[in-house]
UniProtKB/TrEMBL annotation:
Protein name per the record: DoxX family protein
Main localization category: membrane
Membrane topology type: Multi-pass membrane protein
Transmembrane portions of the chain: 111-131, 137-160
Length: 198
């Protein structure tokens, strides 16, 4: 019989979500999704880095992003604006004045997220930052493939334990660990047993 001080601190994970997001039999699905999403980000970032006009990271850096953001500001009118007022304020007061900086962040962010996802390197974190970029594009009123990419990123964030198993996470995560469970590199040194005094 349990006493009154025993409380439920964790709700057991349903078997379906355990199978989808934590079962190694799902490796092939999550690996294919991870590589596809990574390739999508990598090609988008590479296209910005190698843009011959230099409007993302070249001598005209920020030009393309400025045009994109100004276009987003035109979507703030009407009964059902595509861009919310709070995001329009962010665009006007933060993003536009720093368009060159954000241009580099977008181009290199897409490249790094894509590379990390393809390699299976910190898969959950890479998917999170990819999802943040998708959310920002959606907030700016750009539908395109962003909803699909965001859904894929959320799936990879939930399945991070197995999504990178066929990648570098298989090697790195046991070494560095995860929050609450340090890896081999960060384990406290084992204390030597004390020898009794004679």
């Amino acid at each position: 019989m349990k006493n009154n001080t025993d409380t439920l601190t964790q709700i057991p994970e349903p078997s379906l979500s355990r199978f989808l997001f934590a079962d190694t039999r799902m490796n092939i699905f999550w690996t294919l999704l991870r590589v596809w999403l990574g390739w999508t980000w990598l090609t988008a970032g590479w296209g910005k880095l190698t843009n011959p006009a230099g409007v993302w990271v070249g001598d005209k850096a920020g030009t393309a992003l400025t045009g994109f953001l100004q276009g987003a500001l035109t979507k703030t009118d009407g009964d059902h604006p595509e861009v919310s007022g709070w995001y329009a304020s962010f665009i006007q007061n933060v993003a536009l004045p720093n368009a060159t900086f954000f241009s580099f962040m977008v181009a290199y962010g897409e490249l790094f997220v894509g590379t990390a996802l393809i390699l299976g390197l910190f898969t959950g974190i890479a998917a999170f930052f990819g999802g943040v970029m998708n959310a920002n594009f959606l907030f700016a009123g750009t539908l395109s493939t962003n909803p699909l990419l965001l859904i894929a990123a959320v799936g990879l964030m939930l399945a991070w334990r197995v999504a990178g198993q066929w990648g570098l996470d298989r090697i790195l995560l046991p070494l560095i660990g995860v929050p609450g469970a340090p890896g081999k590199l960060f384990e406290p040194p084992a204390s030597k047993p004390k020898t009794p005094a004679v």
